[in-house]
Every structure is written in C-alpha cells, then in structure tokens.
Amino acid sequence: MSNNKDAKPNILLITVDQMRFDCLSIAGHPVVETPNLDELARTGVRFDRAYSATPTCVPARAAIFTGQSQVHHGRVGYQDRVPWRYEHTMPGEFAKAGYHTQCVGKMHVYPARNLMGFHNVVLHDGYLHHNRNKYSIPVREHYDEVDDYLHWLRQQVPGADLTDLGLDCNSSTVARPWHLPEKLHPTNWVVSESIDFLRRRDPDKPFFLWMSFVRPHSPLDPPQAYLDLYKDADIPEPPVGDWALQSDPALDGLSPYTSKGIVPKQRLRHAMAAYYALITHIDHQIGRFLQVLAEYGEKENTVILFTSDHGELMGDHHLFRKSLPYEGSSRVPFIVNDPGNRLGLETGKVVQEVVEMRDIMPTLLDAAGVSVPDSVDGCSVLALAADTAGKEAVPAWRAYLHGEHSQGMQSNHWLTDGKEKYIWYSQTGEEQFFLLTDDPKELHNAALDEACLDRIAYWRSILIRELEGREEGYSDGGRLIAGRKPLTVLSHIRG
C-alpha cells in the first residue's frame, strides 16, 4: 500500500487484558517502564480519564465489538457461553468497507471460533475454565480444539500445557518466571503472528488488525529478564482507604485466587513486580511490531489505538482483580496515535473528558472514513484529540458515564465525570462518594460528609433515572431499590 493520504489508512487496535490506567511511565508511575507506549502517547494523544463501564473481559469486549453501552449489548456482568449475535460489529463494518480484517490473540466470545466479522482469527483466549471442562461442553468447543496458540506451543514443546507453571488464570497474587524460551511466551506469539499477517495480507487493501494480548492478566509469568528489572525496585505499597477492610479474619489474603484480603507483604510485592514485568514485556513486543510495520512501509499509513479492556486492583484497598468500580479496576490507559498525521491530532495532548470502550468502534471507523452504524452508542474521540489551536472549541461531550457490574453481593452501579464518583451497591444499598480531583486514590469515602450531601443527591437522582425501566427493578423512577436480583445478561440477548 503506497503512502497516499487520500487512500484509507490501515487501522491497528492494540488491546491488553487487565492493565491499570496508571501503569505508564508517561502517566507518572514511579516504577513501571513503558518506553514504546510512552512514545505513542508523546507523539499522539493520551486520554487520562478512560474507563471500562463494565470492567470484566466479556462485557468490556462486547462494548469494543459493538460500540454499544452495556444496556444495549446486554452484558452487565461476567457470564460465559452466551452466544454472541450482533448485527453490526467493528470488524464486520471494516470488512464491508473493503478492509482486510484480522484478529490475533484474545476474543473471548462464544462460540470461541465465532469470527465476529473478521476474515480470520488466530486465537488465544488464555485459560478459560468453561472451555477446559471436557465433561460439560461439546468437544468442538474444548480448548484443545479451538485455541491456536496451544496447538502451536505443543508443536514446539510436545505435551506442553497452559498449567505447566502451576499458576491458574486467576492466581492474582502468585507469580513465577516463564519457564520456556521467551519466544514461546504468548505475548511474543501474538506479535509473531501479527507480523506474519503483514506478510500474508492482501496488499491491495487497507487492513484492520486487532492485536489482542492476554497479559498482564494472570498468570503472572513474565520472562525472567523482565522480572529481574523489578526485583530490587522500590515498589510503593498500594493505597488503602479509610473505608477499606482493616483486618482479614477469614485469611482470604492467603488464597492464590483472592479478590480481597490482606496478602503477605513479600508475596504481594513479588506479584506487583511480576505484573509490572508483564507490562514492560508487552511494551517491548509492541515496539518490535511497530519496527516491522515501518520496515513494511506501512507505519505512516496506520492509525493506532492502544487500550485495555479493564484494570487490576492489585492490592488497592486490599482488593484484587476487577469488576469493582474503583479506579484501579475500571480506569484504563487509552492512546491514539497517527504517525502519518492524517487526522490533525494535537501531539502530546492529554484529554480529560471521560471516554469508554464503546468509543473505540466509532473512533476507528471515523479515522478510516467508514460510516458508523446507528446501533452504536459511543462517539468518536477524534474531535477531542484534534489540534484546536485557532479553531472552534471542542464539541460538547458526555457529561458522565454510567458503569455497573453484576456480581452477587458485590453488584454495583457507579457514575463518574472524571472529577467525582458515586457508587451504589445494589444488594445492600451502600453508597460511596469520592472527590477524585482532590482524592485520586479514593482514600476517603465522603458519602456521609455534610459538605457533599447535595452532590450525592444529585448523582443519586441521575442513577435513579438511568435505572428506571430496567428489568431488574432497581429504580421506580423516584428512588433506588436495593436487594433486587442481579442479572449478568439482560433478557434481550439471553436467548
């Protein structure tokens, strides 16, 4: 493809799984090293208030694929094995517009080999429990049958499996180094397969490539060289708010699968080091791909968007993993880069407006000059990223984001404008309120502060309106109603 600004650009979407918003050197993290992502942000635009409205893998990816809010794509919690049937998907729209479309890595859809509009998928979803149970699923859906990385790995190392390290995919506080040559790590594999796509693509078409990494989601298994980068680092302890649990009588923190609890300090520090190491490993592999993209003469023709599907609490407030509304779980990195300067972005700009997973599809279609379907709820972020010097002001943006996650007694709804955050736990009625501008680490729950009562009432009224008419019955239009049965999937897609 020639460097022709009148031709449609290639589109490269890079996603990682479970990366916190603050794990970028350019965002001021005191330890983690991300030189290639820093360069994408330095020469592009970084969105500092990006969120995942329903912060676990399945609903977040539904938002990416469809551009819809959780109310419309219907996945308001984590539930596997619910068929994905959407009329309009991001890869489908690119394919209809003449793009050669490819995904490498994680999809996390059902059935697992559902193309979702891609011409081809080279699949590695990571370890998914429902795909490993040979006695409860059809053989055609078993992991051994559907996962391309595992087939490839066993060609390199006969008998190899994803469990060889003794780490589960939800071992949130247990870490050890990758035991095989680095080139066999799934992070390297995603990049190697993506490079191979550059070789095999149709040269007469622009491409849409989704390079989708499973890490830094556990297992926490970085190659030794990356773990060594952090073994002596001065890693700050996670923040613990005045509202967080202060003791752990059930010893939940000793479980390798814990989502809450007080973890022994040495174990937690090692887990944090491994988590940062996985991020730096991904960063270097992204650099590897961008170098090859330049060698193929396509970097200047490619618009790049980098993000994560959700975050990782990693000990914040003695909490781990995701699904909760706190910043470590719900807030993500989000970078747009345009090496060919097609889009008129303001280099180095940091945007404060609240953006979300649903905005990815319209943004990338907009960058390619492809029509956005009416089914899409999100908006293109390109106007926010544009160089506005001497031009009209940025158009009005969403005033707030409504997020939620169904998860038993921890089921929650939340609202934020990036400056304040209101949280309502739907099963207990507990409210939390954080002044993010002054308290970015959510150390103080201001829900009972006299000075904040009017603001809490304001946000509560918005949530009452957002939930009115929802099938769970959380709102009657005048008040919030706690204790209603939470749903993970709304009825319009449950079938």
From TrEMBL:
<protein>
    <submittedName>
        <fullName>Arylsulfatase</fullName>
        <ecNumber>3.1.6.1</ecNumber>
    </submittedName>
</protein>
<dbReference type="InterPro" id="IPR000917">
    <property type="entry name" value="Sulfatase_N"/>
</dbReference>
<dbReference type="GO" id="GO:0004065">
    <property type="term" value="F:arylsulfatase activity"/>
</dbReference>
<dbReference type="Pfam" id="PF00884">
    <property type="entry name" value="Sulfatase"/>
</dbReference>
<dbReference type="InterPro" id="IPR024607">
    <property type="entry name" value="Sulfatase_CS"/>
</dbReference>
<keyword id="KW-0378">Hydrolase</keyword>
<feature type="domain" description="Sulfatase N-terminal">
    <location>
        <begin position="9"/>
        <end position="370"/>
    </location>
</feature>
<comment type="similarity">
    <text>Belongs to the sulfatase family.</text>
</comment>
<keyword id="KW-0479">Metal-binding</keyword>
<dbReference type="InterPro" id="IPR017850">
    <property type="entry name" value="Alkaline_phosphatase_core_sf"/>
</dbReference>
